[in-house]
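so my prof wants the structure for this chain in the tokens format not the other one, which i didnt know existed until like an hour ago. anyway here's the sequence
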Amino acid sequence: MAAHATRSDLERSLCEELARQAIVHEHRSLHFRVELASGATRPYDPALVVRRGSVLFVLEPMAGDAGAEHVETVTRFLAQHSPEIVFILVAPGEVLRGLPPEAYDEAYPSEDLERAVARIRDQDTAGFLEPFRKRPEGGLS
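here's what i got, hopefully its the right format
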């Protein structure tokens, strides 16, 4: 398999785990405009996309230096596009603990990529989504 173009070590690791579990995926194949609280718009190209039957997964690897601007973009993206996709955030545990639950549909620590990818692999391609329990306030999923 040819190497995919990745922009971070975390994205590369996630890509490698997707390939290891034989999950066909795309990098930056979708392009969105996200309206910010200020009324301005910002482009958003999700890092990874996985299509499982009628379910579209968007995976966003987020390193510790993502910044408030990126967090606002992904949170508002989810609010504006959530009926169409399942937004999965993958980040170090300490980053996940600092994110509001409305910033993701599902979140997994970067230390457990195998579980995050297995969840996608096991998705029923007919479309039934297993519920994901978000972390309690101050906890980690």
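also thought this was worth mentioning. The radius of gyration is 14 Å.
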